[in-house]
Amino acid sequence: MYNISDLIARYIPLIESIKLESRKWLMIVVLSRFLFIPTFYFTAKYGDQGWMIMLISLLGVTNGYLTVCVMTVAPKGCTGPEANALGNILVLFLLGGIFLGVALDWLWIIGNVVVLLSYISLGCGSCLSLWCPKLYIDGYFC
Q1: 26 within 8 A of 70, measured Cβ to Cβ
Q2: How far is it, in rounded angstroms, from Cα 35 to Cα 17?
Q3: Beta 136-137 vs 140-141: how paired, if at all?
Q4: How many of the other CB atoms lie within 10 Å of CB of 9?
Q5: DSSP E strands: which ranges in 31-98?
Q6: What mean pLDDT value characterizes the chain?
Q7: How many other CB atoms are found less than 10 A from the CB of residue 39?
Q8: Contact at 8 Å (CB) between 136 and 128?
Q9: Whether residue 136 has pLDDT greater than 80
Q10: Calpha distance 132→117 (Å, rounded)
């Protein structure tokens, strides 16, 4: 859902009447995305899957829309070679964020696999439910 929402939202700024071009409002909207952190926490703890899908879709929409708006509006504040350099810096940070996200995701996966393998090799499969309840459900490894 995230990728589909992100893709659709990248085309929303083509409609000039709803394209966000104010630097002040761009900053406010980008910083307000930090509100997703407690929202995701409480939805994971108390909500159901429908709310989580809606939040993930909303995160994708805001990501796609704001990425296009920031990438098109930011270089307009500079002239000549500065605009070109700023565009390159924006792309560098975009790629750096993607790389960091992928690297941290792999570390998370590797960490869960190491915990799972260590408990299986120690013969403590039944102890796994105490340490990693997400991996051990109803007597079966997921």
Answers
A1: yes
A2: 26
A3: antiparallel
A4: 20
A5: none
A6: 81
A7: 15
A8: yes
A9: no
A10: 12
Distances (CA, A) of 33 to 36, 59, 74, 75, 121: 6, 8, 19, 22, 42
Structure-token match 């997400």, residue found:
134
Q: With beta carbons less than 8 A apart as the criterion, state whether 70 and 55 touch.
A: no
pTM of the model: 0.68
DSSP secondary structure, 93-137, as one string: HHHHHHHHHHHHHHHHHHHHHHHHHHHHHTT-GGGHHHH-TTTEE
What's the distance, CA 13 to chain centroid? Answer: 20
Predicted confidence (pLDDT) at residue 18 exceeds the cutoff of 80: yes
Residue 56: which of 6, 94, 18 has the closest Cα? 6
